[in-house]
Amino acid sequence: MFTEQQEKWLIRVQEVFFTYGIKSITMDDVARELGISKKTLYQFVENKNDLVVKMVEHLIESDKSAGECLRSESGDALEEMFGVIKHVNEEMSRIKSNVVYDLQKYHREAWEKMQDYQKGFLLSLVRDNLERGVREGLYRSDFNVDLVARMHVVESFIMFDESWFPRAQYPLNELFREFMVYYLHAIVSEAGLNKLKAKLSTYAPS
Protein backbone atom coordinates (compact mmCIF):
# COMPACT_ATOMS: atom_id res chain seq x y z
CA MET A 1 0.00 0.00 0.00
CA PHE A 2 2.84 2.39 0.84
CA THR A 3 6.40 2.48 -0.42
CA GLU A 4 9.26 1.90 2.00
CA GLN A 5 10.02 5.63 2.05
CA GLN A 6 6.38 6.52 2.65
CA GLU A 7 6.20 4.07 5.53
CA LYS A 8 9.22 5.75 7.12
CA TRP A 9 7.49 9.11 6.75
CA LEU A 10 4.26 7.81 8.30
CA ILE A 11 6.11 6.26 11.25
CA ARG A 12 7.77 9.61 11.91
CA VAL A 13 4.45 11.47 11.49
CA GLN A 14 2.87 9.11 14.02
CA GLU A 15 5.67 9.81 16.49
CA VAL A 16 5.19 13.56 16.10
CA PHE A 17 1.40 13.42 16.42
CA PHE A 18 1.57 11.09 19.42
CA THR A 19 4.07 13.37 21.14
CA TYR A 20 2.53 16.78 20.45
CA GLY A 21 -1.05 16.07 19.46
CA ILE A 22 -2.52 16.42 15.98
CA LYS A 23 -4.19 19.84 15.98
CA SER A 24 -1.04 21.71 17.07
CA ILE A 25 1.12 20.31 14.25
CA THR A 26 1.12 22.17 10.90
CA MET A 27 2.11 20.85 7.51
CA ASP A 28 5.20 23.08 7.74
CA ASP A 29 6.10 21.24 10.96
CA VAL A 30 5.57 17.89 9.23
CA ALA A 31 7.75 18.77 6.25
CA ARG A 32 10.48 20.01 8.57
CA GLU A 33 10.33 16.85 10.71
CA LEU A 34 10.53 14.65 7.59
CA GLY A 35 13.34 16.70 6.10
CA ILE A 36 11.47 17.25 2.84
CA SER A 37 9.92 20.20 1.05
CA LYS A 38 6.22 20.95 1.30
CA LYS A 39 6.02 20.32 -2.45
CA THR A 40 7.28 16.76 -1.93
CA LEU A 41 4.90 16.32 1.00
CA TYR A 42 1.94 17.43 -1.10
CA GLN A 43 2.89 14.93 -3.80
CA PHE A 44 2.24 12.26 -1.17
CA VAL A 45 -0.88 13.69 0.50
CA GLU A 46 -3.58 16.17 -0.54
CA ASN A 47 -3.81 17.98 2.79
CA LYS A 48 -3.40 17.47 6.54
CA ASN A 49 -6.58 15.44 6.84
CA ASP A 50 -5.35 13.08 4.12
CA LEU A 51 -2.06 12.75 6.01
CA VAL A 52 -3.90 11.87 9.24
CA VAL A 53 -5.99 9.27 7.38
CA LYS A 54 -2.88 7.68 5.87
CA MET A 55 -1.15 7.71 9.26
CA VAL A 56 -4.13 5.93 10.82
CA GLU A 57 -4.28 3.40 7.98
CA HIS A 58 -0.60 2.59 8.51
CA LEU A 59 -1.10 2.37 12.28
CA ILE A 60 -3.99 -0.05 11.83
CA GLU A 61 -1.99 -2.29 9.48
CA SER A 62 0.93 -2.32 11.94
CA ASP A 63 -1.38 -3.21 14.83
CA LYS A 64 -3.01 -5.97 12.78
CA SER A 65 0.41 -7.46 12.05
CA ALA A 66 1.35 -7.25 15.74
CA GLY A 67 -1.93 -8.90 16.74
CA GLU A 68 -1.52 -11.75 14.26
CA CYS A 69 2.06 -12.26 15.41
CA LEU A 70 1.04 -12.42 19.08
CA ARG A 71 -1.74 -14.87 18.29
CA SER A 72 0.50 -17.23 16.30
CA GLU A 73 3.56 -17.08 18.55
CA SER A 74 1.93 -17.24 22.00
CA GLY A 75 1.87 -20.59 23.77
CA ASP A 76 -1.64 -20.08 25.17
CA ALA A 77 -4.43 -17.52 25.52
CA LEU A 78 -3.03 -15.96 28.70
CA GLU A 79 0.41 -15.59 27.20
CA GLU A 80 -1.21 -13.86 24.23
CA MET A 81 -2.97 -11.39 26.54
CA PHE A 82 0.24 -10.56 28.38
CA GLY A 83 1.83 -9.91 25.01
CA VAL A 84 -1.05 -7.53 24.23
CA ILE A 85 -0.55 -5.72 27.55
CA LYS A 86 3.14 -5.24 26.82
CA HIS A 87 2.55 -4.05 23.25
CA VAL A 88 -0.26 -1.64 24.11
CA ASN A 89 1.59 -0.27 27.15
CA GLU A 90 4.49 0.66 24.89
CA GLU A 91 2.11 2.40 22.49
CA MET A 92 0.08 4.21 25.15
CA SER A 93 3.14 5.50 26.98
CA ARG A 94 3.88 7.58 23.85
CA ILE A 95 0.39 8.99 23.20
CA LYS A 96 -0.42 12.55 24.19
CA SER A 97 -3.81 12.64 25.90
CA ASN A 98 -5.55 14.82 23.28
CA VAL A 99 -4.74 12.66 20.25
CA VAL A 100 -8.03 10.74 20.44
CA TYR A 101 -9.98 13.97 20.96
CA ASP A 102 -8.28 15.53 17.93
CA LEU A 103 -9.19 12.54 15.79
CA GLN A 104 -12.82 12.60 16.93
CA LYS A 105 -13.33 16.35 16.47
CA TYR A 106 -11.14 17.31 13.52
CA HIS A 107 -10.53 14.15 11.48
CA ARG A 108 -13.76 12.16 11.34
CA GLU A 109 -12.71 10.00 8.38
CA ALA A 110 -9.64 8.80 10.26
CA TRP A 111 -11.68 8.26 13.43
CA GLU A 112 -14.27 6.23 11.52
CA LYS A 113 -11.47 4.02 10.19
CA MET A 114 -10.38 3.44 13.79
CA GLN A 115 -13.93 2.53 14.74
CA ASP A 116 -14.19 0.11 11.81
CA TYR A 117 -10.95 -1.48 12.99
CA GLN A 118 -12.33 -1.81 16.52
CA LYS A 119 -15.62 -3.33 15.37
CA GLY A 120 -13.94 -5.64 12.87
CA PHE A 121 -10.42 -6.95 13.38
CA LEU A 122 -10.01 -6.02 17.05
CA LEU A 123 -13.35 -7.52 18.07
CA SER A 124 -12.49 -10.69 16.15
CA LEU A 125 -9.09 -10.88 17.84
CA VAL A 126 -10.64 -10.59 21.32
CA ARG A 127 -13.34 -13.13 20.48
CA ASP A 128 -10.77 -15.60 19.13
CA ASN A 129 -8.68 -15.24 22.29
CA LEU A 130 -11.71 -15.93 24.47
CA GLU A 131 -12.59 -19.04 22.47
CA ARG A 132 -8.96 -20.17 22.63
CA GLY A 133 -8.82 -19.70 26.39
CA VAL A 134 -12.03 -21.68 26.87
CA ARG A 135 -10.67 -24.54 24.71
CA GLU A 136 -7.43 -24.56 26.70
CA GLY A 137 -9.29 -24.64 30.01
CA LEU A 138 -7.73 -21.33 31.09
CA TYR A 139 -10.96 -19.32 30.80
CA ARG A 140 -14.39 -20.13 32.21
CA SER A 141 -16.89 -21.69 29.83
CA ASP A 142 -20.03 -20.24 31.42
CA PHE A 143 -20.20 -16.86 29.68
CA ASN A 144 -21.36 -15.49 26.34
CA VAL A 145 -18.13 -15.13 24.34
CA ASP A 146 -19.49 -12.64 21.80
CA LEU A 147 -21.09 -10.43 24.46
CA VAL A 148 -17.97 -10.37 26.65
CA ALA A 149 -15.78 -9.62 23.62
CA ARG A 150 -17.98 -6.66 22.66
CA MET A 151 -18.09 -5.36 26.23
CA HIS A 152 -14.31 -5.58 26.48
CA VAL A 153 -13.67 -3.64 23.26
CA VAL A 154 -16.19 -0.93 24.17
CA GLU A 155 -14.94 -0.59 27.76
CA SER A 156 -11.31 -0.37 26.67
CA PHE A 157 -11.97 2.96 24.94
CA ILE A 158 -13.55 4.56 28.01
CA MET A 159 -10.00 4.93 29.28
CA PHE A 160 -9.48 7.80 26.84
CA ASP A 161 -12.28 9.81 28.48
CA GLU A 162 -10.44 12.27 30.71
CA SER A 163 -13.62 13.29 32.51
CA TRP A 164 -13.38 9.87 34.16
CA PHE A 165 -9.64 9.30 34.04
CA PRO A 166 -7.61 12.55 34.15
CA ARG A 167 -4.30 11.77 32.49
CA ALA A 168 -2.18 13.41 35.20
CA GLN A 169 -3.72 11.07 37.77
CA TYR A 170 -4.16 7.98 35.58
CA PRO A 171 -1.38 7.52 32.96
CA LEU A 172 -2.75 5.55 30.01
CA ASN A 173 -0.26 2.69 30.19
CA GLU A 174 -0.89 2.12 33.91
CA LEU A 175 -4.65 2.42 33.41
CA PHE A 176 -4.64 -0.13 30.59
CA ARG A 177 -2.55 -2.59 32.60
CA GLU A 178 -4.97 -2.44 35.54
CA PHE A 179 -7.93 -2.74 33.17
CA MET A 180 -6.49 -5.86 31.54
CA VAL A 181 -5.66 -7.54 34.86
CA TYR A 182 -9.20 -6.80 36.05
CA TYR A 183 -10.59 -8.26 32.80
CA LEU A 184 -8.51 -11.43 33.05
CA HIS A 185 -9.53 -12.05 36.67
CA ALA A 186 -13.16 -11.92 35.52
CA ILE A 187 -12.81 -14.62 32.84
CA VAL A 188 -10.17 -17.10 34.03
CA SER A 189 -11.03 -20.58 35.28
CA GLU A 190 -9.50 -22.03 38.44
CA ALA A 191 -6.58 -23.40 36.41
CA GLY A 192 -6.30 -20.09 34.60
CA LEU A 193 -6.29 -18.18 37.88
CA ASN A 194 -3.32 -20.17 39.15
CA LYS A 195 -1.44 -19.45 35.93
CA LEU A 196 -2.47 -15.78 36.01
CA LYS A 197 -1.18 -15.39 39.58
CA ALA A 198 2.11 -17.00 38.57
CA LYS A 199 2.46 -14.67 35.60
CA LEU A 200 1.62 -11.58 37.66
CA SER A 201 4.18 -12.55 40.30
CA THR A 202 6.96 -12.33 37.70
CA TYR A 203 5.46 -9.66 35.44
CA ALA A 204 7.55 -6.54 35.08
CA PRO A 205 5.38 -3.71 33.68
CA SER A 206 6.93 -1.48 31.03
Strand content of the residues, in percent? under 5%
Uncertain ranges = none
Biggest pleated-sheet summary: none
Please indicate the count of domains: 1
Secondary-structure element sequence? HHHHHHHHHH
Number of strands: 0
Envelope shape: elongated
Q: What is the level-2 CATH architecture name?
A: Orthogonal Bundle
Mean pLDDT: 92
Q: Helical element count?
A: 10
CATH superfamily: Tetracycline Repressor, domain 2
Essential attributes:
73% helix, 206 residues, 0% strand
Word description of this protein:
The chain is mainly α and 206 residues long. 73% of the residues lie in helices and 0% in strands. It is built from ten helices and no strands. Helix 6 crosses helix 7 and helix 7 packs across helix 8.
In terms of topology, how is this protein built?
Blueprint: H1 4-20, H2 27-34, H3 38-44, H4 48-73, H5 77-92, H6 99-106, H7 108-135, H8 145-156, H9 172-187, H10 190-202
Quick gist of this model?
The chain is mainly alpha-helical and 206 residues long. Helix content is 73%, strand content 0%. The chain has a single domain, classed as Tetracycline Repressor, domain 2 (Orthogonal Bundle).
